[in-house]
UniProtKB/TrEMBL annotation:
InterPro entries: Macro_dom, Macro_dom-like. Pfam families: Macro. This is O-acetyl-ADP-ribose deacetylase (Regulator of RNase III), contains Macro domain. CDD domains: Macro_OAADPr_deacetylase. Residues 1-175 form the Macro domain. SMART domains: A1pp. PANTHER family: GANGLIOSIDE INDUCED DIFFERENTIATION ASSOCIATED PROTEIN 2-RELATED, MACRO DOMAIN-CONTAINING PROTEIN. It comes from Tepidimicrobium xylanilyticum.
Length: 177
């Protein structure tokens, strides 16, 4: 565990649908109507009430975030955000990925949520290079924590061993250096 401005930051290797936190974050697409990867896992584990709420919301622009309840999962809410599709790195991807994390945290604060778990947004189907994505993810979260000092605990839940190692190295460098 790491601590930054009184907020605990944890990295976990595993399945985000199992997390007992106020909100888990979904790496969704613009339609919010489900898909593969972590999005598919969340809709499967949470059940149909999540899709019903997503249909009413009617989509989400890249870099923004929307919220639903978490259905059958142990968390209370799902914050659906949309990361960028990675093309060449010069199409605004970095800012959009940063915004996806930052706006998810802003929404968590609006709902008075204190514990939140993130997957490695955009690093699957959307093809964002893992190391660059982890740098952006940790920077956005730390910027929010530095500014807002509200969230009590952040989890980065990494599905794969390689992403876990990448986050560990980055956070060791940023917070244990
Ligand atoms: N828990 C945590 N992380 C997971 C899980 C899980 N259960 N399952 C996969 N991952 P991706 P993207 C990791 O492709 O790149 C969907 O179809 C996975 O290993 O889920 O943002 C949406 O509908 C990877 O590191 O999301 C969109 O169309 C990370 O989650 C599109 O994929 C993100 O991979 C979004 O693509």
């Amino acid at each position: 565990m790491y601590i930054y401005n009184k907020t605990k930051i944890n990295i976990i290797q595993g399945d985000i649908t199992k997390m007992e936190v106020d909100a888990i974050v979904n790496a969704a697409n613009n339609t919010l109507l489900g898909g593969g990867g972590v999005d598919g896992a969340i809709h499967r584990a949470g059940g149909p009430t999540i899709l019903e709420q997503c249909k009413k919301i009617g989509g989400c622009p890249t870099g923004e975030a929307r919220i639903t309840t978490a259905g059958n999962m142990p968390s209370r809410y799902v914050i659906h955000t949309v990361g960028p599709v990675y093309r060449d790195g010069t199409s605004g991807e970095e800012k959009l990925l940063y915004n996806a994390y930052y706006n998810s945290l802003k929404l968590a604060k609006e709902y008075n949520l204190k514990t939140i778990a993130f997957p490695a947004i955009s690093t699957g189907v959307y093809n964002y290079p893992k190391l660059d994505a982890a740098e952006v993810a940790t920077r956005a979260v730390m910027d929010f924590i530095a500014k807002e000092n509200f969230i009590e605990e952040v989890y980065f839940v990494l599905f794969n061993q390689d992403n876990y190692q990448i986050y560990k190295e980055i956070l060791d460098k940023k917070l244990n250096g």
